[in-house]
Amino acid sequence: MNKAFDAFSNNAIKGLNAFNARDFYPAHEYFEAAWRETLHESRNLYRALLDLSGGFYRLTQNRPDAAWKFFVKALNWLEQLPSLCCGLDLAKIILNIRSILAALDQKMDPDTILQKYFEPIPPPVGGSR
Predict the structure, then answer these.
(1) In sequence order, what are the beta bridge partners of 89?
(2) Sign of the C-alpha dihedral, residues 26, 72, 64, 112?
(3) Is residue 24 in a domain?
(4) What's the pLDDT band for 127 if we cut at 50, 70, 90?
């Protein structure tokens, strides 16, 4: 299967919808389900998205140190993938995570980070369901 991994799983779509609605804990759970049920290469994308969701969830709990760990893990997974994967622009997501990590390093308030840096992830394009 390659073509930059083709289709997005149903659980991943649910995770993306929850993420975009700022429902980070359910998003994390959906992405984890997608990761667990997927046997092909796209499972690492789902792992990155579950870590990304976890990072934002920790920000909502005012736990910036825990959020930082999730964002670093998400970044590490995303940097191993093609810049366009399963119809998502990962390069844009990577840049945003780097901005979030810089804000966390500068001890910016978690609520400010959420307001300033949260960006919904556009739905998958091309080859995705």
Answers:
(1) 84
(2) negative
(3) yes
(4) very low
The CA-atom distances, in angstroms, between 50 and each of 3, 45, 107, 108, 126 are 22, 9, 24, 23, 22
Phi, psi of 85 (to 5 degrees): -140, 125
The pTM of this model reads: 0.90
CATH at 61? 1.10.3450.10
Provide the domain limits for residue 46.
15-117
Mean pLDDT of the residues in the chain: 89
Q: Are 55 and 65 in contact (CB under 8 A)?
A: no
Q: Is residue 124 part of a domain?
A: no
Is 25 inside a domain boundary?
yes
User: Do the domain assignments include residue 125?
Assistant: no
> CA 111 to CA 47: how far, in whole Å?
25
**CA distances to 47, 57, 61, 111, 124 from 107, in Å:** 26, 17, 15, 11, 33
